[in-house]
Amino acid sequence: MRPKRLVDAVLFDTFGTVVDWRTGIAQAVAEFAGDAVDANAFALAWRGRYQPSMAPVRRGERGFVDLDVLHRENLEATAAEFGLPLDRQPSDVDWLNRAWHRLPAWPDSVAGLTEIKRDFIIGPLSNGHTALLTNMAKHAGLPWDVIIGSDITRTYKPDPNAYLRTAELLHLPPERVMLCAAHNTDLAAAQKAGLRTAFIPRPTEYGPDQREDLHATGPWDVIGRDIVDLAKQLREHVA
User: Fold this and answer.
1) What residue range is the signal peptide (predicted)?
2) Does 187 have pLDDT greater than 60?
């Protein structure tokens, strides 16, 4: 008899859920700028422009552009805010902008993903584009089965099409796909689109003063301590 499964694919929000963007970006900023700026504050400010920069694309006011373009625009705005000159070799600025391709995994990510991969299709469901997510996977050792970037779905979460087109590309109905995220708003949008949901907390994603997403705030299908714990809970659904 075929094993009973809650879903067939478990997909993951990536920035903040699977990888530690704040540490990775702050390290790159420190290497680029030295003591010229507070690297952690710069990383937080750069990330703070992330959602606002995608909003015009989601509203149809701007054609789709990938995160390398948006990150570069946001980098230039953040550098101007902090008084950091970007008058370096273009390759140096490109290296800094591509720090989003080189983020470190959280300590539990690779082990947890490897365990989930035994029984489920795994991959990112991220606003990152395919090249970014592929480079990130190679850098951090993320064992994805499939990578479907936002350049394929041509939209950004929480637009419902970001979730639905990904499920469609896997030839799965939405209810056979689970999104795991450390962000309750992402899960709410995925659930509204018909996906199953799993929450894990990343209480230091934004540093010691983080106030949001410290715990689950919605009726998610699974709530885990981390990705390893999520793997243990999902195993109960593969008998």
Assistant:
1) none
2) yes
3-state secondary structure of 177: strand
pTM of the model: 0.95
Task: Give me the DSSP letters along 29-86.
Answer: HHHHHTTSS-HHHHHHHHHHTHHHHHHHHHTTSS----HHHHHHHHHHHHHHHHT---
In the sheet that 9-12 helps form, which strands lie side by side, from edge to edge? 121-124, 9-12, 177-181, 196-199, 222-223
pLDDT digits (tens, 9 = 90+) for 46-63: 999 999 999 999 999 999
Dig out the tokens for 14 from the structure. 């990536």
- Eight-class DSSP state of 99: G
Residue-wise over 78-105: b if at least 16 C-beta within 10 A, else e?
bbeebebebeeeeeebeebbbbbbbbbb
Residue 33 or residue 3, greater confidence: 33
For CA atoms 160, 200, 230, 150, the dihedral sign is: positive
Number of residues written out for the chain: 239
Give the pLDDT of residue 4: 66
